[in-house]
Amino acid sequence: MSTLLLIVIFTAIGGILSVLTAGVFLLLPEQKRQNLLPHGISFAIGALLTGAFCGLIPHAFEEVAEGEMQMLSATILIGILFFFILEKLLVWRHCHSHACEAHGEDSHDHHAGHQHQQNDHGRRVAGMFIILGDSIHNFVDGVLIGAAFLTDPQLGMVTSLAVAAHEIPQEVGDFAILLHSGYSRGKALLYNVLASLTTVIGGVLAYFSLGDLRHILPYFLTLAASSFIYIAVADLIPSLHRKTDIKTSLEQIGFILAGVGLILLMQTIAHRFES
């Protein structure tokens, strides 16, 4: 199977199927969703961190000369700072609807009818931010998956699986914000599917633009690793600290280890498949 076809298939898996899975998830009763979502977040943490530390970073260091290792390590730090600044400035992944509404309320007069219109406008803006931010995020994910496949098909498969693992709980949150913003279920699903197509576009673009620039691929791998680390540590792990009882903590650890185990199993299977 050609590398380009693999990139298209696995970027679609990481993008479109995660949206559809999140859409099906929203059909479950509210209480069931509330019970399952934290487990998905815990699982995604394990998958992301394992993909970064046991997949992307080791492969990146294998591809460079010893003299470049310090620069490659610095790229991880720069990447984490970059994603922090980008999230701060553009609110590109998690524009919390209450925060957006609060901003809208503070900046307008307090007339009841006018305030209601501004709140509706604020929710629509929040929905537009989610769609735009998701498109940018998915495009970057596609580029990183494509770079991973150009380095090693096994690494590409593991990277796409880690992307899908964190995309599903994120897409559930995005769906919730779009529905709160006044979008129908059908439109919310359509816009999320369209945004997910940018993953495929990013992967294909990486194939054609990075194929002859293999010397910079290790830097894309470390950028992907910094993205995974940032998402896990800054976005996902803090949400697990909201509950500290023993039962919940053990469940969180169990699902994190399940995410770790799945990525390691995927690496083993992919390695045997290549052999």
UniProtKB/TrEMBL annotation:
It is a multi-pass membrane protein. It is found in: Membrane. It comes from the Bacteria. Signal peptide: none annotated. Keywords: Membrane, Transmembrane, Transmembrane helix. It holds the Pfam family Zip. The chain crosses the membrane at residues 6-28, 40-61, 67-86, 189-210, 216-237, 249-270. PANTHER family: ZINC TRANSPORTER SLC39A7 HISTIDINE-RICH MEMBRANE PROTEIN KE4 (PTHR16950), ZINC TRANSPORTER ZIP13 (PTHR16950:SF16). This is ZIP family metal transporter. The lineage of its organism: Bacteria, Pseudomonadati, Pseudomonadota, Gammaproteobacteria, Methylococcales.
